[in-house]
Amino acid sequence: MGGAWITWPLQRLLAARGHLFPFAPVGVGTGVGLWFSLPVEPAPSAYLLCLAGLVALLPLARRDLAQAPALFLACLLAGVIAAGLRAHLVQGPMLQGRYYGPVTGRVVEVDRSQTDALRVTLDRVALDRVPPGRTPLRARISLHGDQSVFTPKPGQVVMVTANLAAPEGPVEPGSFDFRQMAYFEGLGAVGYTRSPMLLWQEPAAGEQWIGQLRSRLTLAIQSRIAGDAGAFAAGAMTGDRSGLSLDAVQALRDSSLAHLLAISGMNLAFLIGFVFSLLRYGLALLPYVALRIDTRKLAALVSLGVASFYLLLSGANVATERAFIMVLVMLGAVLFDRRAITLRSVSLAALILLLWQPEALLAPGFQMSFAATIALIAGFEAINARLPAGLSRLRREALVLVVSSLIGGLATAPYAAAHFNRFADYGFLANLLTVPVMGAVVMPAGAMAALLAPVGLADAPLWVMGQGAGWILYVARLVAGIEGAVTAIPAPPPWVLPVLTLGLLWAMLWRGGGRFAGLPLVALALVFWAKSGRPALLVTPDARLAGLLGPEGRALSKPKGGGFAAKTWLENDGDLAPQDQAAARAGFVPDPLGLRFTLNGQRGLMLVPKADLAGRDPCTLADIVILPAEATGKGCLLIDLTLLSRTGAVAVYDDLRLVPTRSARRLWSP
């Protein structure tokens, strides 16, 4: 009897053996996630142990009952090994301390920062008085002040006097780790300048040619389509979104339409779908060709070339690479006479990407695009059998549009809420009104403009493209302007999203009634998300900004400065208030030495940088003392620069439990 309980799950796995391939990337992703969650960097012996375990599992995979568990564990170990290998391969120097002085480098990317400032990313960086071995491989600089001297373009070698520092880590425990992301991008320094950037050298022949082509195409599109519509059209075709105004970007975010501007799976699918259909059905009109050549395969080959060029043109960022891999798998299925869009093909794309770029697992784009794709495939498999047989084509297409928007929106909502702390209440309506225009107008018109540009006939399709882009921006602004268009969502605890994902994946990937076993995990994650508490007090690493949770929301210690930390804290609270409004809330009371506050009955004091203590122990002033200097004291919770240099930003809870941000020691740690 006892043995039957043990073998029953294995028997079920054996019976489902032909449908278990989609769980391979789940296993790899679990291994990658475990690797990133480790508090210390694994020693080389740990990877050798994983490799030995992987080899030991292979014989077990030949046994029927043990096959599925053995292969899943093998995938998990492969994920750990892939993540460790990738982290060591991309390792590069991070800037030590702060730097102010001349910076020379080659422009590889031009975009805009969150404050709408023009921003350049440089490689081949040279810094004064910094040895080459300690010089970051890449640096990103925001351009403030008068920058009318010239507009930087990819391939140019430029000089500028800038303030630089290493990328910062999380601004509170468990929040987004910019330093980790920068490590995998090879970005070792970020900063700003108020001095004019100067051209040192024009691009060498053939150097950064794709970046130069992107820049020329962007200018050509914007010269024919004015305003934000032209910037949107250029962004959709070339990936250069630097011309889009901050107002338009915010409207797209608040209406849940920002994904239309990302060079992601949907944009690439629209473009390749149009090219594939144009070639396949165009060649079918030529009987001599249609009778002698498989037009589907020829169209797939040409579409693959177009997709490869589009990948290079758009900058080959992570989202575009992910979309390209998915398109590559699907076009490959056409070439080998397989179904193009199945859970197996999507799983293969995820598997390739996770083994190639394991850090992609943590990216919101990866999570949202695969969640939407898997949900759409699983959803339509269930719906197709239930559609009325006599449904007209028009009604069927309308129903598909509504259902696909609904499924895609529901599948991505938890990830958008977790990463961006907001839910666009009218996003479903906005997508219904714009996605068809993006797929049937904007991307096809862009493709036709590229096709006709060599013969000087691009103006007409560009005009059509501009009308479509204008409509999308009109809908974005209209929807974003509705009262209550955005609902703020507090950030979940770090473990909630992985548990939620595993539950959803089981529910979508498993065949039969057993899929409902994933729902308790989903429910558990949502309950703990809803009941999770937020830190009572947050302090930045320089001790110059603090946030105190109160009845009105989080009160901030100052209305300006530390803007990124302030914005992140408020968003993670589920609070859409700007920093100056949060600073006006009750919580901090001015004092000759700084700001006084109360936390769960304990007296708190945040000292100003040059507070004169007259030799007193800071702990005699309050029970909780925040001091932007190094100090010693006994009998209080002292948060000074000595502590913060070890911990990074800190969170303090009602029971005065202090949680550091910098608790792990990894390759990207300071």
From TrEMBL:
One of its GO terms (cellular component) is plasma membrane. Residues 45-196 form the DUF4131 domain. The chain crosses the membrane at residues 20-38, 45-62, 68-89, 299-319, 368-387, 399-417, 437-457, 469-489, 509-530. Keywords: Cell membrane, Membrane, Transmembrane, Transmembrane helix. Coiled coil: none annotated. It is found in: Cell membrane. Its main location: membrane. Residues 238-511 form the ComEC/Rec2-related protein domain. This is ComEC/Rec2 family competence protein. It comes from Paragemmobacter straminiformis.
